[in-house]
Specification:
Blueprint lengths: L6 H7 L15 E4 L5 H4 L2 H7 L3 E3 L7 E3 L7
Parallel strand pairs: 1-2
Antiparallel strand pairs: 1-3
């Protein structure tokens, strides 16, 4: 498999039985799951002060703060 394959093509051509690990770096942002209450999970004044966007994903799960840091020390 081509290791630099574009994402849409990767998902179409990769056999479903093979494991897949995606590693990516995002700009700082706060992401919450589909069923979470943003008013309980997110400190909106702090996000505005830091100019950090808030995003809701389609899937469930907890709140995640994405920050650009090295994966390993």
């Amino acid at each position: 498999m081509n290791e630099c394959m574009p994402m849409p093509r990767l998902f179409k051509e990769k056999p479903i039985q093979e494991p897949l690990l995606l590693i990516y770096r995002d700009k700082p942002c706060v992401v919450i799951g589909r069923n979470q209450n943003p008013w309980k999970e997110v400190n909106f004044p702090a996000l505005r002060r830091a100019d950090i966007p808030f995003i809701r994903r389609r899937s469930g799960g907890g709140t995640v703060y994405h920050v650009r840091r090295p994966l390993l020390p």
